[in-house]
Design goal:
This protein is mostly beta strands. Helices cover about 10% and strands about 40% of the residues. The chain contains 3 helices and 22 strands. Strands 10, 13, 15, 16, 17, 19, 21 and 22 form an 8-stranded antiparallel beta sheet that branches. It has a 5-stranded antiparallel beta sheet with strand order 1-8-7-4-5. A hairpin with a 2-residue loop joins strand 21 and strand 22.
């Protein structure tokens, strides 16, 4: 049992009342807005997050995430037969940056009616891919950075585009030259490979299991196809500046179903 796990249990995940057994075998992650947590219980147990039942793999792994605006607390309830445990999860506080992005083509900031129809159709494709609910195990792996470079945009920051306030940014932007290799941060199956979306240009999505997916935007080249299985470290695409972008970079995003998460909570420091 690591110090981080002990800290999590004692400071942010507190048992409520007496417990009859040890059903929570492990829990990885720091509870905070934008974070993904991965746990394991006994195979066959039932796990609830507040009123939502969580799916389990055959090995008893489960996962859940918190959105940018979640404040908590949340309750994790685990039961098996007559045994049960309840934990209260306190979310750490986070501050969000304000990021100004100028020089974008105005048509991408205030799109036409025809462009909006295309945008809505493409968004529906992405939502459908993110709703994939497989029993893959990729989400249990310690994620790695898909590309290295200077971080130019962070999760949760309020975006001001060409002087106009817009939605928060839901990914991490990594600047790198066009053509730089992008690798899979964890194993999974390709559920979306689109060469040219209005906002995101070349767009790729990987299903890692139990609703966890990762997305890669502004790609210059996609090297895999929908339905392909990839392992951690496999080459999947190359950096570009397609779609709404002011320069070559990777926008990397992570979701738990439709809940947007901060990819940096899954990886360590950017490799130098």
């Amino acid at each position: 049992m690591t110090f981080r796990y002990l800290l999590l249990l004692t400071a942010l995940l507190l048992p409520v009342g007496a417990t009859a057994s040890e059903l929570l075998l492990s829990l990885r992650g720091d509870p905070a807005p934008g974070a993904l947590l991965v746990g394991q219980t006994r195979p066959g147990a039932a796990v609830m997050l507040d009123k939502q039942q969580l799916r389990l793999t055959e090995s008893g792994h489960f996962t859940f995430g918190f959105g940018r605006d979640d404040t908590g607390p949340a309750r994790l309830y685990i039961s098996e037969g007559s045994d049960s445990e309840t934990y209260e999860i306190t979310l750490a506080h986070r501050e969000w940056d304000i990021q100004r992005v100028d020089g974008l083509p105005q048509r991408t900031v205030t799109p036409s009616a025809d462009a909006l129809a295309r945008i809505n159709a493409e968004a529906a494709q992405v939502r459908q891919a993110r709703d994939t609910d497989s029993t893959l195990y990729g989400f249990t792996e310690p994620f790695i950075w898909p590309v290295t470079g200077r971080i130019t945009g962070v999760f949760g920051s309020q975006r001001i585009l060409n002087g106009e306030p817009r939605r928060p940014h839901y990914g991490v932007d990594i600047a790198a030259p066009t053509g730089t290799d992008i690798v899979a941060p964890a194993s999974g199956v390709i559920t979306l490979a689109h060469e040219d979306m209005f906002y995101s240009g070349g767009t790729l999505l990987i299903d890692h299991g139990l609703g966890v997916s990762s997305t890669y935007l502004h790609l210059s080249e996609i090297l895999v196809s929908e339905g392909d299985t990839v392992s951690q470290g496999d080459l999947i695409a190359r950096v570009g500046a397609t779609g709404r972008a002011t320069g070559p970079h990777l926008c990397w995003r992570v979701n738990w179903y439709q809940e947007r998460l901060d990819p940096t909570t899954l990886v360590g420091e950017m490799p130098r």
